[in-house]
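User: Structure with coenzyme A, tokens only please.
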Amino acid sequence: MMRTKKASASRNAAIMSDDEHDLFPANLLDRLPNQRQENGLLVRPLRTTDYDKGFIQLLGQLTDVGHIGRDQFLNRFHSMKSAGGHYVIVVEDLEVGKVIGSSTLVVEQKFIHNCALKGRLEDVVVNTTYRGKQLGKLLVTTIAQLAKRLQCYKLSLDCRDRLIPFYEILGFKREPGNANAMNMRIEAISEQSRL
Ligand SMILES: CC(C)(COP(=O)(O)OP(=O)(O)OC[C@H]1O[C@@H](n2cnc3c(N)ncnc32)[C@H](O)[C@@H]1OP(=O)(O)O)[C@@H](O)C(=O)NCCC(=O)NCCS
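Assistant:
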């Protein structure tokens, strides 16, 4: 869907109330092939009001989320927003006013490669009742194009073995000699890491 920047800005202003904030400027998603309003679905940045649209429950279909209160959600939202480099996108089903898909691009600032930017794809999830409708694909391709727009030199991810075919369909490759994900699990979570 082609829209001018002005039209896009006024559209966002029209649908957002004073206490609603986007995590990042919505126009970064303009002219990416991700606008599916004709199907009643919209890809957009995470918003403060998504706490009431099932965002946390959706993440619960990805992993253990814990009990996150509204204040905790808003604190983390604003901390991500002020830190920059966090691009959480959601798919909203406009008919029911629910967030039914989400994914995140984290942009890492490097010194290497002439102070390059590297993207990481995180937390891809589609609500169970909406799976198999190409929405996972829509989320990943949107993140890939956003990474390109932000001039990341590469986009990487970790995933469960069973999801390797899903990401291969979408253009990710296990590079020979460079296909290992390693983790060190930290037992006790310090107060600092909760900030
Ligand atoms: C993985 C997930 C995001 C896929 O979402 P989805 O909306 O059902 O996927 P799509 O409909 O966009 O599928 C796109 C393509 O990938 C394929 N695909 C989907 N899931 C797959 C899987 N687990 N393994 C292999 N291929 C898969 C589809 O068949 C489709 O292929 P096609 O284009 O040839 O038709 C979804 O199953 C999910 O939320 N799972 C739980 C959370 C999770 O594990 N997230 C990944 C964390 S790394």
